Structures are given as structure tokens and as C-alpha cells.
Amino acid sequence: MGEALLTQKLVGDRLELIAGGSWTAPYAGELETEINRLAGGTSGAKPVKTNDVSIDMGGVRELDTFGAWLLERLTRQWTGAGRDAVVVGLPQHGADLVEEMHTVNREPPPRTRRMNPIVSFFAAIGRGTTGFAGSFHTFAQMLGATGVALGRVLFRPSEYRLTSTVHQFDRVALQAVPIIALITFLIGAIVAQQGIFHFRKFGAELYAVDLVGILVLREIGVLIVAIMVAGRSGSSYTAELGSMKMREEIDALRTMGFDPIEVLVLPRIIVLVIALPALTFLGSMAALYGGGIVAWLYGGMSPDIYIARLTDAISLTHFQVGMIKAPFMGLVIGLVACAEGLRVKGSAESLGIQTTKSVVESIFMVIVLDGLFAIFFASIGM
Amino acid sequence: MSETTPVIKVRDLVVGFGTQIVLDHLDMDVRPAEILGVVGASGAGKSVLLRTIIGLIPRREGSIDVLGKDLDNVDESERRALERRWGVLFQQGALFSSLTVKQNIQFPMRENLEISQRLMDEMAYAKLEMVGLSPRDGEKYPSELSGGMTKRAALARALALDPEIVFLDEPTSGLDPISAGDFDELIRTLQQTLAITVFMVTHDLESLYTACDRIAVLADGKLAAEGPIATMLESEHPWVKTYFQGKRGSSLADRELTQ
Fold it and tell me: According to the model, what pLDDT value does residue A60 have?
């Protein structure tokens, strides 16, 4: 650098500015400060300009749109104050550029609407509330649309997408087996350890087996599996459908005369309804196994005693309670995931928002549903 | 930079994927302040060439000099400085979807320059007006723009830092003929006022006639022909012949002659 971008000199009652150096993007910051200083302040306040000005651009080596615009701003500051501003010594290509800049930024910039912070706070609450109600609305819509699609498929079974179903089943159920088995095994082990540790104080270690058996079969097995599936498969459903929506693939399906619900949503939901009981069964067994191992190694209870105690403690009812809940949880996860997927709008950000929502909402719904089932089973005495 | 030094100098370039060789010992020069149109059949490697020059695709052999710097012998900071001196318009626009158009244009400015928000706003509006959009469009999100507006907004972002070279990947594809014509004219005007070098990959014969100074034809991984439109019309290369003298090409050539 080294060269001064702008030097000033008073000749008679005329202010002469001599420009030099590079009036380009890398020096734009510096140049702007110079120009603001000349204008008598950095704010938009009207500067006092008592002299006409002439700007000699002959010494400028390079000029780009940044420099050209700043020159234009400088001259506008003077002409705006009713003074004369003359630019001399512009090379041809620079003159074109300045000419171009002459027309821009004539209108006041568009206002970005700023809301009162209090208003926007309440508006956000309102939007959140209606958004929450809206999610229930879309959930109900998706339930209805899936029901209709299911009805149509029942009448014309040949149109059901079996290939897609098998593929989804592989992804959602079979590939989930290792992680689900591992997690539920650990949960079973932890519950057993806690049970034994605390019941030991009362000499009631054997009841830890009851705890593990009932808790796992009725609640933990199905809940853990449902939450895992919501995080693992629900999110992937939302992201898949969402990106298909963004790339207009869903619109393409529709124009070809296919119902996206029937082609994309129905197989996915049916897979979840089948996969969840299967994974729940597997998960419960893994948890009981984990409990048994801990009871043996930590509690000193031989496997024979553990199994005998388990047979006494649990009944078919406990098993049924867990298994009956599973397909409903699958249905809820599938409906929420697909509904949120189809609500994705154009941007990458919206895809992220909907995927988050999908997981949070489906886990929430799973727990609410579990509560409702608990009330239901209690009242029918199961 | 003297008139004879090319802005982009590609020598002996080989690019391939797996066993497939896309560019086979290709040599090419882009001269300062010209608009070079690169044409070729679909899959001939036009976009691959562009993406190789800007460093998105690794090359197997050969050298690329951009603005007098050998891309093999630049360190990280030099490379960043070099990248600041070129702008790229991607085929789909590639505007950041979570930012408004204005923020998209300001993004490179914010990262690379130390200037006030006021100047950044003014420059963003200036760039928008230069590409034929209104400042009000700056507040919109990319998903709210039409195809033509997306291209214009993306061009405004490519021009944000006043680059010396602009790479355009099929700038007029997906536009109606009138918008495409306007866009060609826009590129021409911008090139003249800003004195930039334009490297344009295109399929559009109309663009080649109205916007380009020189044309390079890619075929079989090499440059099949290179020169102004007159050279193309005289070329004996079979693909070049069909392209420029086929039904669509020759009608344009006739129109050009009668004007």
C-alpha cells in the first residue's frame, strides 16, 4: 500500500481531493473511513460542506465497483448538500463503472420490518401454540390419509408396494437388531443391579426379579424400543420424505397419477407397525437376559433360581400388555415422521427443523400414548 | 498483466473417475477480458473441466495456472487469496437456502473484507441492481425466487467481491429464450464495465453467438476446435460441424449473416 487513497487541499474556495492507490474491495474499508471523515461524521447527519469539490481520479491505479460506489457516495454527499462536485481524470473503463453506479441505490433501501420486542415475544408464544395445535391437525390428517390409502390397497392388493415394504423392513427392523438388543440388554442389567442393591437392605433380593420381569415386559421394553426407533427410523423417514419434497419428487409422483401417501407413506408405516412388536419382543428378551446375567454375577442368584422366580412373578398378561402397545407406538412414530417430512419447505434449514420436530414429537406422543394405555389397562384389570 | 499472458493456462490436463478418462491431455488458454464459451456434447467433460480449474475435482496429471499462479505451488493462504479473485455461478445457483438473497451476496464480503454494514448493504443493493433485480428482492429467501431470479441472484453473489474471473456453469439453462437472451446481454455488459474474464460452460447456441468472444469445443477429452464463431462455422470436425451447421445452428448463423 503506502499510497494515500485520498488527500485533500484547499484551492481558493474549492476543495480539491486527489485520489490515489487502489480503489478496490480490499481497501474499501479504509476508503470508507476517509470518505466518512470528509463528510464530517460517520452517521447520516447532514455534514457541513461549504465548498465545491473536485476529485482527481487520475492517480488511481485500479478501480472496481466498491471504489466506484464510494466515489459516487462522495459526490452524492456534496451534490446532496447543494454543492458542486466534479470528477476528473477517470479512465474510460472507470467512467463506465461510475456511470453504472450512478443509477444504483437511488431508492431508500427496503425496510426490514422490526417488531416491538414485547409484541414479537407474544407473537412467538402464539405461533408456538398454534403450531402445536397444527401438529395435531397434520397428525390427524396423516392418519386419515393413511387410512384411506390402506382401504384402497385392501381392495386392490396387487397395487401394494411389496418390494418397498421389504426394503424398508430390512432397514428399520433387521438392521436395528444389534443396537436394540445391546441397549435393552444393558437397561435390563442396570434395572436388575439397582433392584438387587436396594432390595438387599430388606433381604428381599429375590423381588428384584419381579421388578425386572414386570417392568421390562410391561413398560421398559416397549418404551426403549419405541424411543430408539423414533430416533433411528423416524428421523430418517422425515429426512427422506423432506428431501424428496424439496426436490419436487413428490410433485412428480402426484402428476404421474400416484398417491404419494400410498406409494411412500403407507409401506413405511406398515413396516413400523410390524417392526415395533418384533423389536419389542427381541428387546424384552434381551433385557430379561441382561437382568439374569447381573442377578447371577452380581446378586449370586443361579440361573435356575432366576428362571423359576421369573416364572412365578410374571404372567402372560404382563407380556400381552407390552406387546399390545407396540404396534400403536409404531403407528404413531410413522405418522408423525411422515407428516413432518411432507411439511418440509424449500430450505435446508426447514429440513433440519422438521426432522428435529419429528423426533421430539414422536417421542412425546409415544410417552403420552403409554400413559393412556396404563390408564386403560388399569381400568380393565390387566 | 500483458495482453499475451493467458488468465487461465491449462496444460496436459488428465482427469478421470475410476477407469473412465474424462479429460485426456487437454491444453487450453483463456485470454484476459474475453468471454470464452465452452461447448461439447453432454458428458464431454465441460463441467468437469470447470470444476477441475476451480479445484473441486482432483486431477491426475497436468498443470493449471490461474492469474499467473500455478495451482500446484500455492500455499493455503495464497490459494484463499486466489479464490477471492474468482467467482463461480453454479448450475443450480447454489444460493444458501437459509440466508436471504442479500445475506447471500454479503456472505463473501463479510468473510473477506473489513467494511461497515452500511457499505455492505449499499454494495449488495448495487450488485442486485447491476444484475437486474430490485433491492426488495434482497429480502427474499432463495426458495421464493423464480429460476431466472435465482440465476441473477447467484450471479450477484459470484460478483460480490469484484472478481477478475467469473466461471459460469450453464448460466442460461432452464431459462426461457427471452430471459436467456437478457442474461447473455447482462453478462456481456457486466464483462465490459467490469473488465472481467468470463469462462462460460454452455449448451445454448444463442449465447455463443451473442455473448462469446471465443469458443472452445470439447470432444473426446480434448479441445476439438477453438476460436471465434467464424472459425467454428468453417471447422471440419464432425461434431463441431453438426453442432454449428445442424438445423438449429445454421438458422442462427443465417440470421447472424442477414443482420
Answer: 77
Task: Note whether A26 contacts B126, CB cutoff 8 Å.
Answer: no
Start-to-end CA span in chain B (Å):
36
A80-88 average pLDDT score: 77
Mean pLDDT, residues A180-202: 94
Range A322-334 average pLDDT: 95
Q: Chain centroid to CA A45: how far? A: 44
Instruction: Nearest chain B residue to A65 by CA: give it.
Output: B162
Query: Tens digit of pLDDT for each residue in B71-92?
Result: 777 888 888 878 888 888 888 8
Residues of chain B found within 8 Å of residue A70, distances taken between Cβ atoms: 119
Q: How far is B137 from chain A (nearest CA, A)?
A: 9
- Say yes or no to pLDDT of B63 above 50: yes
Q: Which amino acid is at A121?
A: F
pLDDT higher than threshold 50 for residue A382 = yes
Domain ranges of chain A: 6-102, 131-379
Torsion of CA B36, B42, B46, B52, to 10 degrees: 160
Beta-carbon contacts of A150 under 8 Å, excluding residues fewer than 6 positions away, are A266
Report the CATH architecture of A6-102.
2-Layer Sandwich (3.30)
B108-124 pLDDT tens trace = 888 777 888 888 888 88
Average pLDDT over every residue of B127-154: 84
Q: What does the mean pLDDT of chain A come to?
A: 86
CA A52, A58, A62, A65: dihedral to nearest 10 degrees?
A: 30
Instruction: Give A-chain residues touching B94 at CB under 8 angstroms.
Output: none
Between the alpha carbon of residue A324 and those of residues A304, A315, B19, the distances in Å are 29, 15, 55
- Residue reference for cell 400381552: A320
Distances (CA, A) of A333 to A136, A165, A232, A269: 13, 16, 11, 8
A206 pLDDT more than 50: yes
Please name the member of B136, B143, B161 whose beta carbon is closest to the beta carbon of A110. Answer: B136
Give DSSP secondary structure letters for A234-279: IHHHHHHHHHHHHTTHHHHHHHTT--HIIIIIHHHHHHHHHHHHHH
Angle at A160 between CA A158 and CA A162, to 5 degrees: 105
CB contacts of A105 in chain B (<8 Å) are 122, 125-126, 129, 135
